[in-house]
Design goal:
Strand content: under 5%
Number of helices: 4
Oligomer: single chain
Structural class: mainly alpha
Largest sheet: none
Order of helices and strands: HHHH
Shape: elongated
């Protein structure tokens, strides 16, 4: 007969006394890392470095912007290769397309800054 492995839930918890503001800071750190409070404390207590996660909404926004850039780049490529589907594109249309690509790149840069800057300031 095999011995049943003991689980964490069956083990006694470790109690840590802290001030309310310390608890808030620990909870905020756990949330920033995308972990439960228990998992965060266990990870830190065992000596592992906790790496944070990027806000999923910002990642989704970057993916959307990247898709926009891909579509705009595809249109530009069709025009540059003299594809018959873009034969009606005039200079004004191409300049508008290039402007849209530039503004989309700027938008992507702003989202990237919002992801990176908060981490750099911590």
């Amino acid at each position: 007969m095999r011995d049943k492995k003991k689980t964490r839930k069956e083990s006694p918890p470790i109690k840590v006394y802290c001030l309310p503001e310390e608890r808030l800071q620990i909870e905020a750190n756990a949330k920033a890392a995308g972990m439960s409070l228990s998992a965060f404390l266990l990870t830190v207590g065992r000596g592992y470095k906790v790496t944070g996660i990027v806000d999923f909404e910002q990642v989704r926004e970057l993916a959307r912007i990247n898709g926009d850039l891909g579509r705009l780049g595809g249109l530009l490529k069709l025009w540059l290769t003299n594809d018959r589907r873009t034969a009606q594109f005039g200079e004004a249309t191409i300049r508008a397309l290039l402007s849209r690509i530039e503004s989309t790149q700027d938008e992507m840069g702003q989202v990237m800054k919002s992801v990176v800057r908060p981490r750099a300031e911590s």
